[in-house]
Design a protein that fits this description.
Blueprint: E1 2-3, H1 11-17, H2 24-38, E2 42-43, E3 55-58, H3 66-79, E4 83-86, H4 91-97, E5 104-109, H5 118-131, E6 136-139, H6 142-146, H7 150-164, E7 169-172, H8 180-192, E8 197-199, H9 211-221, E9 226-230, H10 236-245, E10 249-252, H11 255-260
Parallel strand pairs: 3-4, 3-10, 4-5, 5-6, 6-7, 7-8, 8-9, 9-10
Antiparallel strand pairs: 1-2
Length: 269
């Protein structure tokens, strides 16, 4: 049995709960809804098509065209992917294209380097939410983590989390650039800062998701926080291995190949 990801239909509940933030009960409700977004009900995966609700269908390469975004959203509707993951400036178009479906757009922030100022990340995240983003995938400042500037890293994450509440925030660690200890510390900082998910990779850095890294992140954050595996996931077998290791969301641009069994061509993320 594996965790079925929460569909973006829960976004409405999150938005409704935001009005209650001023009291203890409202804060508790928000916390529970964010937890549900990361760790949803559990079902069995019986076929490759059952993987679709786990997948953030992703298009983050440079120079994306309108036609490619239309195709991305059409595929998301057809196969029932959880979300489409795009750059912040593409969120508004995708939100319009996905109207009437259960799929929602989500946005990366500080992508792919994570070296932007906290203020810039907060501004980008707020703009993305205003344009219709249901979730935010933010990149940490990897250099600051490696320099052991943990206060900066946690504050950077927390600022985005607080600016976008009640929308779930995923924290991209870029695990291929980190030691085992750095991965564990980064995940712990993301949890401490109130993020809903920890995420392995941008898909544009060194390496991508591995079973070992997903298992490590799951062990660090525990059972109530989401883990997103991303980078180099191209087949259903890849996705199943990541889910078996503890992933509750998969980031992939080979999403159609994953659910249909077709060969993936020209796929990077």
């Amino acid at each position: 049995m594996v965790g079925h990801p929460a569909g973006p239909a829960r976004t409405g509940k999150l938005a409704a709960a935001s009005a209650e933030q001023g009291d203890h009960e409202g804060a508790h409700a928000l916390a529970m809804l964010q937890r549900d977004a990361a760790m949803p009900d559990r079902i069995a995966i019986r076929s490759n098509r059952d993987l679709a609700p786990y997948i953030d269908h992703t298009l983050l390469k440079p120079g994306v065209t309108r036609e490619e975004l239309v195709k991305l959203c059409d595929e998301a509707r057809t196969y029932g992917f959880a979300t489409v993951c795009v750059a912040s400036h593409n969120v508004a178009l995708c939100a319009r294209l996905l109207e009437g479906s259960h799929t929602r757009p989500i946005s990366v922030v500080g992508f792919p380097s994570g070296t932007e100022t906290t203020e810039a990340k907060v501004a980008e995240a707020r703009d993305a939410i205003s344009a219709g983003a249901a979730e935010i995938d933010m990149v940490i400042h990897v250099g600051r983590l490696k320099a052991k500037d943990y206060v900066y890293v946690e504050r950077d994450i927390r600022a985005v989390v607080e600016a976008t509440t009640p929308r779930p925030v995923k924290v991209i660690l870029e695990t291929g650039a980190l030691s085992r200890d750095e991965k564990a510390i980064g995940a712990a900082l993301a949890k401490a800062a109130g993020a809903a998910f920890v995420k392995t990779s941008t898909g544009f850095g060194p390496g991508g998701a591995t079973v070992e890294d997903v298992a490590l992140l799951r062990n660090v954050v525990g059972p109530e926080m989401g883990v997103k595996a991303s980078g180099g996931i191209r087949t259903a077998a890849d996705a199943r291995r990541m889910i078996g290791a503890g992933a509750t969301r998969i980031g992939a641009s080979a999403s159609v190949a994953i659910v249909t069994g077709e060969a993936a061509h020209g796929v990077r993320y």
